Amino acid sequence: MGSAAKQQPTKPPGKGKSNVNQSTADRRARIAELRAEEQRRDRRNKFIAIGAAAVLLAGMVGGGAWIALDAKDKKDKEAAAAKAPIAGVQTFDNLTRNHVATKVTYPQTPPVGGDHSQVWLNCMGTVYDKPVENENAVHAMEHGAVWVTYNAKASADDITTLSTKVKTTPYSFMSPYPDEAGAITLTAWGTQLTVDSAADPRVASFFTKYVQGPQTQEPGASCSTAQ
C-alpha cells in the first residue's frame, strides 16, 4: 500500500503582512522623530539669533545714545561759549556800510567796520603774508569773517599758532599789520580784542563767538572772491 502524502507546513495567516506594517510604522516614527529634532534645532537657532540681535541692538542703541548725548553736550558748551562775554572785547556801533571806490580813513587800527570796497577779501581760512587793503578786509568782516592781525611784537610761535587756527577756520583770514598798537589783534565787524600771545584763551573764545557770529551784517554771504 502506498504511503500517505506528507502535508507541507503552512505560514500563519497574515504574519508577513504584519511584519511589513511594523517596518513601515518604525520608519514613519523615525522620520517624525528626526523632523521633531530638526524643528527643535531650528527653534534653538532662532532663539540664539534673536538673542544676539537683541544684544547687538542694545549696544547700538546705547552707543547711539552716548554719541547723541556727547554731541548735545558739545553743542551746549559751544552755545554757552558763544553767549559768554569775553574780557577786553571792545564793541563799536552805528558803522556805515556804503560801497566806495576810494580810500577810507578809519578811526580804529585795524578798522572794525564802516564804508568799504565793493570787493571783499578771500576769507575762507586765508593767511596773507603781506598787509592787505583795509577796504577789502572790512567787506570780508561784513560777511561774518574774523580778521587776525599782528605786528613785530608777535613771536614766530604766535604767528605759526594763529596761522594754523585760521587755515582750519572758514570765515577767517590773517595778515600782518605793522601799525597796530598790540602784538595781536582779533577783529570782527564792530568788535575788537587785543592780546599779547596766541596762547591767550580768549583767542579761541573770540573765534567761537564771532566767526559768522551775531555781529555778522550779511549772514551766509560768500567768503570766496576773485580778489
From TrEMBL:
Presence of the UniProt keyword Membrane in the record: yes
Keywords: Membrane, Transmembrane, Transmembrane helix
Low complexity bias spans: 1-17
Organism superkingdom: Bacteria
Transmembrane segments annotated in the record for this chain: 47-69
Segments of this protein annotated with the region Disordered: 1-38
Designated name of the protein: DUF3105 domain-containing protein
Organism annotation: Kitasatospora gansuensis
